[in-house]
Design brief:
Shape: rod-shaped
Oligomer: single chain
Number of helices: 3
Number of domains: 2
Largest sheet: 5 strands, antiparallel
Order of helices and strands: HHEEEEHEEEEE
Strand order of the largest sheet: 5-6-7-8-9
Number of strands: 9
Structural class: alpha+beta
Low-confidence stretches: 35-59, 61-69
Strand content: 35-45%
Length: about 130
C-alpha cells in the first residue's frame, strides 16, 4: 500500500535524481570556472617557433614541448631552447616578438618562493 502512494507522489523518481545531480554538477563547474578566472593573470609571448603561456599559478606551456614547465622539470636544454636563464633557485624567461616582450621570473629567497611577471609580484608563499 505504501509503495503505491510513493509511486503516485514521485512517478519519475529516477528523472528527478538525474536532473538534481546534473544541476549540482553545473553549479560546481561554474564555481570552479569562476575561481579559476578570478585574479589569474595570463600573458602570451611568441618568439620564433615558441609560444609560451605564462599563468600566475606557475604554469608555462610551450607549443613545441606541449608540456607543463615548472622548477621540477625545467632543464637546461629547455632553457637554452627558450633563451631563458636557469639556476637552482631561479627561472627567468624573457621572450619578445614584434616589439612586445614579457619576462617571467620564479625564484626562492629566504625560504619564500616568489614569482614576478614583468617585474610585478604575482605570487609569493612558503617554499
Amino acid at each position: 500500500m505504501k509503495n503505491k502512494r510513493i509511486k503516485k507522489i514521485f512517478p519519475f523518481k529516477g528523472l528527478i535524481i538525474a536532473v538534481s545531480l546534473l544541476c549540482i554538477l553545473v553549479i560546481f563547474l561554474g564555481i570552479q570556472l569562476r575561481n579559476y578566472s578570478k585574479g589569474v593573470k595570463v600573458q602570451v609571448a611568441r618568439a620564433n617557433t615558441h609560444t609560451v603561456w605564462i599563468v600566475a599559478d606557475q604554469i608555462l606551456f610551450t607549443k613545441e614541448y606541449d608540456t607543463r614547465i615548472t622548477k621540477d622539470n625545467f632543464t637546461e636544454k629547455v632553457a637554452e631552447k627558450l633563451g631563458a636563464s636557469f639556476s637552482i633557485d631561479q627561472i627567468s624567461i624573457t621572450l619578445s616578438d614584434d616589439g612586445k616582450s614579457v619576462t617571467y621570473v620564479s625564484y626562492v629567497k629566504d625560504g619564500i618562493a616568489c614569482e614576478t611577471l614583468d617585474g610585478e609580484d604575482i605570487l609569493c608563499g612558503n617554499y
